[in-house]
UniProtKB/TrEMBL annotation:
Methyltransferase among keywords: yes
GO process annotations (BP): methylation
Keywords assigned by UniProt, alphabetized: Methyltransferase, Transferase
Gene3D superfamilies recorded: Vaccinia Virus protein VP39 (3.40.50.150)
One Pfam short name: MTS
Alphabetized InterPro entries for the sequence: RsmC/RlmG, SAM-dependent_MTases_sf, Small_mtfrase_dom
Ranges for domain Methyltransferase small: 32-200
Keyword check for Methyltransferase: yes
UniProt protein name: 16S rRNA m(2)G 1207 methyltransferase
Gene Ontology terms for molecular function: S-adenosylmethionine-dependent methyltransferase activity
Record organism: Micromonospora eburnea
Length: 204
């Protein structure tokens, strides 16, 4: 994985030197310049799957009130785009990686959303909180059992009329994940396919 040496992006406390670097990308006509670091998912660029998700998923409306959730936030590109698209909505950014959380918080400040972005370890999200939208480029490489456990933890946190947007590479099991979600009782629509990625729209 680019930018990851001794640490994995799902390491809780990376020990490699951070070596911060700027990442530039555009979504929905807005340019972003965020800061990433070694030991964080896709440290050297906007991950291609994340790019497809942000391009093909339906971003929240400007008047959306949330709350919104980014699962596996990395350095925060999804969080920052959601916070910009919905300037009144609180956005929760969750990651097991301490360095990822630090950089997400810094990037939220960069886009003027520090007061609305709550960066948290998974266990620090209030148990009774329900989300209008959940967005994730889930960490496929943690393994199928762990991935299923992660989704079974967060998807039930959708509000009754909520929607989750997921992106998964087809060659890493995008279609089998689609079938598994259906087997778990979720409504799943393959909303888009681009560059080998599936964008899945998941509802109750």
């Amino acid at each position: 994985m680019p930018g990851v040496t001794g640490d994995h992006y799902f390491t809780a406390e990376p020990t490699s030197a951070a070596q911060p670097r700027e990442i530039e990308f555009s979504v929905a006509g807005r340019d972003y310049t965020l800061v990433s670091a070694a030991g964080v998912f896709s440290a050297d660029r906007l991950d291609p799957g994340t790019a497809v998700l942000l391009r093909k998923g339906e971003l929240p409306a400007a008047d959306a009130t949330g709350p919104l959730l980014d699962v596996g936030c990395g350095f925060g590109p999804i969080t920052c785009v959601l916070a910009t698209a919905a300037p009144s909505a609180p956005v929760w950014a969750v990651d097991v990686n301490e360095r990822a959380r630090e950089f997400t918080a810094a990037n939220a400040a960069r886009v003027g959303a520090a007061e609305r972005v709550r960066v948290a370890a998974p266990d620090d999200v209030p148990a009774d909180l329900r989300f209008a939208q959940i967005w994730s480029n889930p960490p496929i490489r943690i393994g199928k059992a762990e991935l299923h456990e992660l989704l079974l933890r967060w998807l039930p946190r959708l509000a009754p009329d909520g929607v989750a947007w997921l992106v998964v590479a087809r060659h890493l099991g995008g279609d089998s994940l689609h079938r598994w979600l259906v087997e778990q009782g979720w409504q799943v629509d393959r909303h888009a396919s681009q560059k080998g990625y599936r964008v899945l729209r998941v509802t109750r």
